[in-house]
Structures are given as structure tokens and as C-alpha cells.
Amino acid sequence: MLTLSKKILVAIDGSPLSDKAAEEAVRMASGNPSHLQSKVYGLLVLPNATKSTFTDFVPAKPITEQAQWSELKDRIFFVLEKIAAEEHVPLETAVVYGNPATEMIRFAEKMGVDLIVIGSTGKGFLKRKLLGSVSHQVVKDAKCSVYVVR
Questions:
Q1: So where are the chain's domains?
Q2: Could you tell me which residue, 29 or 59, shows the higher pLDDT?
Q3: Whole-angstrom Cα distance, residue 77 to residue 12?
Q4: What is the homologous superfamily of the domain 7-49+61-149 according to CATH?
């Protein structure tokens, strides 16, 4: 096994499954005994800002511009930040807007990521066909390796 440093992207959304993916990403990064330390990127992809309807007089601000955003962000990234600190793994977090699969792939390409770690909800065949699957889309379109956590 090569012990070169790796850039690992983990998809975070605050769910227990994304926390499990975060644990796996940090475990992989900390398992590198090389002096070239691996780095983890935690990425939260939020949907595009809500569109106002004709009944709205003032459109709602995006969540990142609301007063409770700092507390919410801290809760979402808590597990990842805690585990990375315990394992002394360099961590960078980011929040972007858009389609989750598209934005993860775009971020991975921009940062030169070697591995994407993502949770899978395990939707059934019918739901996956009707609603689509973010993890399936990432596996299909990513140019780097993808590790799906269940």
C-alpha cells in the first residue's frame, strides 16, 4: 500500500449516516503513517435559495444569512471536527449551494481530491428511480475514487 498523502472529501449534512462517513474519512486519513499527511475536506451542499411565491412579500434569506446559522453549522460539522482534532488530521470545511452531486464533483475536481466518501441512505429501487440518488450520481460521474458508506 502506498503511503502518499491523500485529499479526502466527505459529504456532510448532519445526519447519522454522514457522521459515519466522516468517521470513515478521518480513519482513512489518519491511517497514513507517512510524513506526508492526508487532508480531509468536509463539504455541506445546501439547496439553492428558496424561491419566493406570489404570496411572499419578502423572500426568505438563505440559511447562511440567518441568525441561527452559526449554531446550526457548528452542529452539522461537530462530529467531523471532533474526530479530526482527536486524530490530528488536517481539516477544511466548506458550504456551497446547488445540486449535491454536481457540487461535490465540482469541488473534488477543483481541489484535486483523491477520494470522495459519501453516505448512502439505501433507498429502494423504485425510490432511487423516481427521486435519484446522490451517491449513485457521484459514483457514476466522479473522476476520482468514491467510497460509499452504509
A1: 7-49+61-149
A2: 29
A3: 7
A4: HUPs (3.40.50.620)
d(CA 19, CA 118): 10
Rounded-to-integer distance, Cα 144 and Cα 13, Å: 21
Between CA 19 and CA 32 the distance in angstroms is: 21
- Burial category of 22 from C-beta neighbours within 10 Å (exposed 0-12, middle 13-18, buried 19 and up): buried
Q: What was the pLDDT predicted at 5?
A: 74
- The count of residues in the chain is 150
For residue 5, the surrounding DSSP H or E stretch is none
| pLDDT, mean of residues 48-73 | 66
Question: What confidence tens digit (pLDDT) does each residue in 20-47 have?
Answer: 999 999 999 987 666 678 999 999 998 8
109 with 49: CB under 8 angstroms? Answer: no
Q: Give pLDDT, residue 71.
A: 86
Q: Which of 75, 64, 65 is nearest to 19 (CA)?
A: 75
